[in-house]
């Protein structure tokens, strides 16, 4: 990715209403080539609506959107072939065998991945001859991922991709996404409710709350967000456990050290996590939505 390259995904002032009900209220979003962007937000925030608009499955009410250089509402087959989708809902191919299904989908693309190699990549080689309906939930999800990347997409949409994965499968999947992004330059837009996953995978995170981007930045920037404070824990001289939240933990520790005249018993400093920032954003009253709190990048810049 270079700073000057046009974003793979660009939205400006994106609005969406279902009937009279406004869902998106002016979303600005940029995703650059080879970047993994995680879109976070509570249930009903508008993530799926946003992603469906970007995928060309839903007509927006207003605003400008460009995906791989085209307006998704006018995306043709050639445009669609450059995009990979791993959706929440399973397409119904229950009686197909795993390898057959993958080979069938591969035939739609000009330069598909080799199905056998792909099965190996997602850890389904042993299940190659099994009917889709006989796969476990996590194995089906791996097949979803394989189907999403069989056409070597430039842009991959992952909608809660690791739901139902066991920890090892999740780890393998994370390595796969990292490889796609770092080595093949695939751009990834990920929606997830798993903050650990977002922190692990995302170059940048955008938090969508109530149809607006409330905060955006790298995971570290968001975790350091102005609203979230560190927690300092220690044991007082009389043996009682103490804790205090502060924006300046090193100062508090210095004061405690000075007052104690030496080492502080039971000292722990817990830095604010992405979860702290997320919960703060989600529970912030609506009238603060226009403020800059927690938004570690400039307000003018898109997420
Ligand atoms: N076709 C539709 N018609 C009317 N309202 C809809 C439609 N689709 C979604 N909505 C409403 O739009 C809002 C945003 O929904 P959306 O599915 O985009 O949220 P989300 O952030 O993806 O949520 P989740 O985390 O639960 O998947 C919700 O209030 C939902 O009820």
UniProtKB/TrEMBL annotation:
It holds the Pfam family ABC_tran. Residues 9-235 form the ABC transporter domain. It is found in: Cell membrane. InterPro entries: AAA+_ATPase, ABC_transporter-like_ATP-bd, ABC_transporter-like_CS, ABC_transporter_ATP-binding, P-loop_NTPase. One of its GO terms (biological process) is response to antibiotic. SUPFAM superfamilies: P-loop containing nucleoside triphosphate hydrolases. GO terms for cellular component: plasma membrane. It is a peripheral membrane protein. It comes from the Bacteria. GO terms for molecular function: ATP binding; ATP hydrolysis activity. Its main location: membrane. Gene3D superfamilies: P-loop containing nucleotide triphosphate hydrolases. The keyword Membrane does not apply. Keywords: Antibiotic resistance, ATP-binding, Nucleotide-binding, Transport. PANTHER family: ABC TRANSPORTER ATP-BINDING PROTEIN. This is ABC transporter ATP-binding protein. It comes from Streptomyces parvulus.
